[in-house]
Amino acid sequence: xxxxxxxxxxxxxxxxxxxxxxxxxxxxxxxxxxxxxxxxxxxxxxxxxxxxxxxxxxxxxxxxxxxxxxxxxxxxxxxxxxxxxxxxxxxxxxxxxxxxxxxxxxxxxxxxxxxxxxxxxxxxxxxxxxxxxxxxxxxxxxxxxxxxxxxxxxxxxxxxxxxxxxxxxxxxxxxxxxxxxxxxxxxxxxxxxxxxxxxxxxxxxxxxxxxxxxxxxxxxxxxxxxxxxxxxxxxxxxxxxxxxxxxxxxxxxxxxxxxxxxxxxxxxxxxxxxxxxxxxxxxxxxxxxxxxxxxxxxxxxxxxxxxxxxxxxxxxxxxxxxxxxxxxxxxxxxxxxxxxxxxxxxxxxxxxxxxxxxxxxxxxxxxxxxxxxxxxxxxxxxxxx
Length: 385
What we know:
By secondary structure, the chain is an alpha+beta fold. Helix content is 25%, strand content 25%.
């Protein structure tokens, strides 16, 4: 059992004495399964973005930790997440992204569901030509909906259904970025890309939330937003990251820039912030655009990074928008050799999880401590059962 494999005692120490999570947390399938439950299913995890289903009736089948789920926008425009299975025999309902023109029809026995998840048709369920049966109560056999919440255009899900309300869990960050609580618009197909990375998803979080690596991994970015221009963002048990006091707007022909988000304070004229929202969403805010990265754990050593860019208006300059996506993709690709190198390093026997610089690694240490605290609570709960 994972409980006998890993010790969390050294992880939960003050940063001056703490060790990082041990190798098994990056390489062992059993520990990965334990973390999937404790870190990703029991809380609010990032699943998708609303731009994945832009129009009513849009439906996209997606797997989350092996579970078949269906992201869709219903007839009233509400984004919902359902288990992508028929309540009859468990058949997959939607195999490919498509527009739901009428009802969601099971390809096996043609049971049909509305986009709100209601079971609306059960052909021949009572025998040939008999579409009802007293033993099949349609009002009890709708699609199983997964609890979800929309913030920053990210679709967050709580698979267990037991987490406190999203606003309660993340109220501190919502308040920190209150000025950005306004419409933002997905840049479209040229503002979304996916990176497949051969590492555990936690390494992507660890790397993102600190600025210590900038001079060596991102020399272009560091040439104007230097290491000394950055500050730590630390909210124990919730999120961590970094901010910069020197944000340089991207300019196109004739000095054209993206429109700013209206009503921002003077701070944002030159500042930007980058936060890892535990467990698996990486967010960035700037005066003229924002981004969200949803990390999808594929296996203990593979992660898919879904990157989406957003703007203050729906009609931004296409060439400038494409250039912005290209530049961010370059930055995020520069990190790949680092996270993949750390993953390979976790195969070294006896590695004790590493140590943290008390001056530079505070945000990363907070993430390790959060992981350890959630696992301790999960293990305590299992022991009490």
